[in-house]
Specification:
Number of helices of chain B: 7
Structural class of chain B: alpha+beta
Strand content of chain B: 15-25%
Strand order of the largest sheet of chain A: 1-2
Shape of chain B: globular
Number of strands of chain B: 9
Structural class of chain A: mainly alpha
Oligomer: heterodimer
Radius of gyration of chain B: 22 Å
Order of helices and strands of chain A: EHHHE
Radius of gyration of chain A: 18 Å
Helix content of chain B: 40-55%
Largest sheet of chain B: 5 strands, antiparallel
Order of helices and strands of chain B: EEEHEEHHEHHEEHEH
Distance between the termini of chain B: 12 Å
Largest interface: A-B, 44 and 46 residues
Shape of chain A: elongated
Largest sheet of chain A: 2 strands, parallel
């Protein structure tokens, strides 16, 4: 591979939500994709969106912690919640055979998840 | 399905073949030509297809002024695509003036500065102090948030350091009189250079010599100026 940027900006395939949904539907329609393929593809999209929200909420919690607007109990509770959510995400990725690379969403003007 | 490779001003080799070995054809857009292939089904996003796309664009750019289009611009309606491009003819002409006869180089960090998500405690947190990692592993909520904050700061510091190095290298290359464009990808910050095709070898050698000194940056290219074509003001890349 010559490394030329064929994708949105850096030559690696990223998930474009609309295109990915079209691809899944087309694969299911033509039979090129098995039901398990479609299920895994949908799981990747759903987990990507969950990951976006989780990271946004986590960053907001960190900002509030640094700003001193959370007391010790709230910080501990929030931290444990995000920790548990992270672990749950890892479990789900394992269940569906997904990696971090599979959960890389192009959010258009917002950039990418990672 | 119509797959778009580039918009050119000049001659297109009629023997050129595109994805799935389909012969390329052209759509007249005023005095410009859109270079396309026609497919019975949507083009699959495979590596082979992407590489063939780039190869076609490179061939086109070698023979004529070309605005390269990134892989993935597929259209169901030929008349719709032509009408869309006709609406952009003036902009495309201006783009051709700027990127025609040029290639693109990219300099970026050799390491990925944008970390993947932080590993959860079960996978062993990587950043912060040993004591902090132990507290995260023990399930401390505060320690987890502090660990994540430290990771973000480390990442931001790495990105800043890369930007500084890119500026340093660019200063040494500025005599080359080339357009520069900064982009931010998931591999970290990158700096793109628009270089006249005739200067490409000299520029590439000089850039590689400069970046080779520290070993922390890598030079990619030359290739068609995809980034500049997509990023120049007023240009909306056809999809």
């Amino acid at each position: 591979m010559n490394g030329a940027p064929t994708g949105p900006d850096d030559g690696r395939p990223d998930i474009d939500l609309s295109r990915e949904l079209d691809r899944l539907l087309e694969g299911g329609r033509t039979g090129d994709a098995t039901p398990e393929d479609v299920q895994r593809g949908l799981a990747a999209l759903v987990l990507t969106l969950v990951e976006v929200l989780r990271e946004l909420m986590e960053r907001q919690a960190i900002r509030r912690m640094d700003a001193g607007s959370l007391d010790d109990d709230e910080i501990e509770r929030l931290g444990r919640t995000f920790l548990a959510l992270r672990e749950r995400m890892e479990e789900l990725k394992t269940v569906f055979g997904l990696t971090d690379e599979d959960l890389n969403l192009d959010l258009g003007p917002l950039g990418r998840l990672r | 399905m119509i797959h778009l490779y580039a918009v050119v001003r000049g001659v297109v080799d009629p023997a050129l073949r595109g994805i799935d070995d389909v012969p390329v054809s052209t759509l007249e857009v005023g005095h410009l030509r859109a270079v396309v292939t026609r497919h019975p089904e949507p083009v699959q996003g495979s590596e082979d297809a992407a590489l063939r796309h780039v190869a076609v664009v490179e061939r086109l750019a070698e023979g004529a002024d070309a605005v390269p289009v990134r892989f993935g611009s597929d259209h169901g309606d030929e008349r719709g695509l032509t009408a869309e491009l006709e609406g952009q003819e003036e902009r495309l002409d201006a783009l051709l003036d700027q990127v025609g006869g040029h290639v693109e180089f990219v300099i970026r960090t050799a390491a990925t500065t944008r970390s993947r998500s932080a590993a959860p405690p079960a996978g062993g947190p990587s950043g912060g102090t040993a004591a902090g990692r132990d507290r995260v592993a023990a399930g401390s909520g505060r320690a987890y948030l502090e660990h994540r904050r430290d990771e973000v700061r480390e990442r931001e510091a790495a990105v800043d350091a890369t930007r500084d190095r890119l500026r340093e290298v660019s200063r040494a290359l500025v005599a080359e009189d080339v357009a520069v464009l900064d982009t931010d990808t998931r591999r970290g910050p990158e700096r793109c250079f628009l270089v006249a095709r005739g200067d490409a070898v000299r520029f590439g050698e000089r850039a590689r010599r400069l970046t080779g000194e520290g070993g922390d940056l890598v030079v990619s290219g030359p290739w068609p100026p995809f980034t500049f074509a997509a990023a120049l003001p007023g240009h909306e890349e056809p999809r």
